[in-house]
Amino acid sequence: MRPLGFAGDVAVRARGLAKRYDGIVALDGVDFDVRTGQCFGFLGPNGAGKTTTMKMIYGLAAVQDGTLEVLGRDISRERRAVKARLGVVPQEDNLDRELTVRENLLVQAGYFGIGSEEAERRVAELLEFSLLAGRSDAMVRQLSGGMRRRLLIARALVNEPELVVLDEPTTGLDPQARQTLWHTLDRLRDQGVTLLLTTHYMEEAARLCDRLVILDLGRIVAEGSPDELIARYGQPHLEAVFLHLTGHELDR
Ligand SMILES: Nc1ncnc2c1ncn2[C@@H]1O[C@H](COP(=O)(O)OP(=O)(O)OP(=O)(O)O)[C@@H](O)[C@H]1O
Ligand SMILES: [Mg+2]
């Protein structure tokens, strides 16, 4: 296990976290703690506030009200220091389409100040892991949607992050690629990496998450482990809990 850069056992702590966009409430005062080394899920219908929460955690959206500590630091004041220790898989692909697969990874390594020899080593490893070694010299615009998503995930791991934030990482992946990603996430968690995940796939949340919150209209309507939630609401599986609490059919 890689030594962690801080001693705390809480990787993310949110208190009264709130955000409005032009009068629209995206997040309405949420509290949660993510323990170091856990896989923590954010579930909820479209517009519930999942991406807003993720963006605040990785420093893309400003915290409006409340407090948010990430890896022991106040993200509003120490954004740069925190960002170096995070990996981010955004919901929308922001790869550089006019660069090759390999170049996208090398640029990211450069962004984190990783020396060229070490960068080459990591990039070769990530190309293998993302099953893109055979396409390393292809331009990103030539990749399929699922391949781009795999590259996006590989890119998030270039700096060997302590905390990885994944916003709908498996949307659009074929079943085999999804399984591969699940195994990768298992491996990262075994190494002590904390994972934050949003998903619309309840079987994925049940399979991966140690704990999760269900958000609806910017509020947390339930929190617990998948099994606790199933037992608490007397439902046969997590999908039924979700429907029971949000009244939404799942969007796929
Ligand atoms: N940049 C923005 N400008 C204006 N409104 C925004 C912006 N980003 C998010 N919102 C609004 O905030 C609310 C929460 O959006 P958010 O993207 O966090 O939802 P989500 O739970 O990630 O949904 P999805 O499952 O569709 O990805 C929505 O009402 C959305 O329209
Ligand atoms: Mg979203």
Keywords:
Rossmann fold; 35% helix; single chain; binds magnesium ion; binds adenosine-5'-triphosphate; 25% strand; 252 residues; 6-stranded mixed sheet; 4-stranded antiparallel sheet
Could you characterize what this model shows?
- This protein has 252 residues and is α/β, with parallel strands linked by helices.
- It has 2 domains: 1-85 and 164-252, 3-Layer(aba) Sandwich (Rossmann fold); 94-160, no CATH class.
- Helices cover 35% and strands 25% of the residues.
- It has 9 helices and 10 strands.
- It has helices at 50-57, 79-83, 101-111, 116-129, 145-156, 175-190, 202-208, 226-232, 238-246, and strands at residues 10-21, 24-35, 39-43, 65-70, 73-74, 86-89, 163-167, 194-198, 211-216, 219-224.
- The strands form 2 sheets. Strands 6-7-8-3-9-10 form a 6-stranded mixed beta sheet, sandwiched between helices. A 4-stranded antiparallel beta sheet has the order 2-1-4-5, covered by helices on one side.
- Strand 4 and strand 5 (73-74) form a beta hairpin.
- It starts with 9 loop residues before the first strand and ends in a 6-residue tail after the last helix.
- The chain binds adenosine-5'-triphosphate and magnesium ion.
| Main β-sheet, spatial strand arrangement | 6-7-8-3-9-10
* Most strands sheet: 6 strands, mixed
- Radius of gyration (CA) equals 18 Å
Helix content: 25-40%
List the helices and strands in order. EEEHEEHEHHHEHEHEEHH
Which architecture of the largest domain does the CATH hierarchy give at level 2? Answer: 3-Layer(aba) Sandwich
> Shape, please?
globular
